[in-house]
Design a protein that fits this description.
Elements: H1 4-26, H2 34-44, H3 62-74, E1 84-87, E2 93-99, E3 102-108, E4 113-120, E5 125-132, H4 136-147
Antiparallel strand pairs: 1-2, 2-3, 3-4, 4-5
Helix pairs in contact: 2-3
Length: about 150
């Protein structure tokens, strides 16, 4: 006969293994150098001069670059794959992640505001909104959404 303690221990072990497996599936796209690489890409935007697009693009606002760097440095270490860092012709910048057709974009509109886009046509998700550029929790929640893996059974 199996004791109640052994049965409880077995259930706890099974629950732990399931949690670890779910975390592995969720975070299997982890890019260990996310912060350093992203900060380096953001720093490179400082070199863009007005007209960098061979047209009328503005130089990227240095304070917006600083705000983006501060946010990236405060994000959790388990972050997703390396994003694309893109200058915008109006002096703003965008950080974006793509996985298949799933997209998450952070557009730094000012030193205080990030406009975001969550888009996943396969799950019929299209959501736009704004968060404070200093709201690490909100940014992390959006990245957690992006990291989620859909399981088809």
């Amino acid at each position: 006969m199996i004791s109640a303690t052994a049965d409880t221990d077995s259930m706890a072990t099974t629950a732990y293994v399931e949690e670890v497996n779910n975390d592995w599936r969720r975070f299997r796209s982890v890019f260990p150098e996310f912060k350093g690489a992203t900060v380096e890409n953001l720093q490179q935007l400082r070199n863009l001069q007005p007209g960098w697009d061979a047209s009328n693009a503005q130089a990227i606002d240095q304070d917006i670059i600083d705000a983006a760097i501060q946010l990236v440095k405060k994000l959790p270490d388990y972050i997703v794959q390396r994003p694309l860092v893109a200058p915008l012709s109006d002096g703003e910048l965008q950080i974006e992640w793509h996985r298949g057709r799933k997209v998450l974009e952070f557009e730094f509109e000012s030193v205080s505001t990030i406009h975001y886009l969550k888009w996943d046509p396969d799950a019929q998700i299209e959501e736009e909104g704004a968060i404070p550029a200093t709201d690490v929790d909100a940014a992390t929640n959006l990245l957690d959404w992006f990291m989620e893996t859909q399981h088809h059974e």
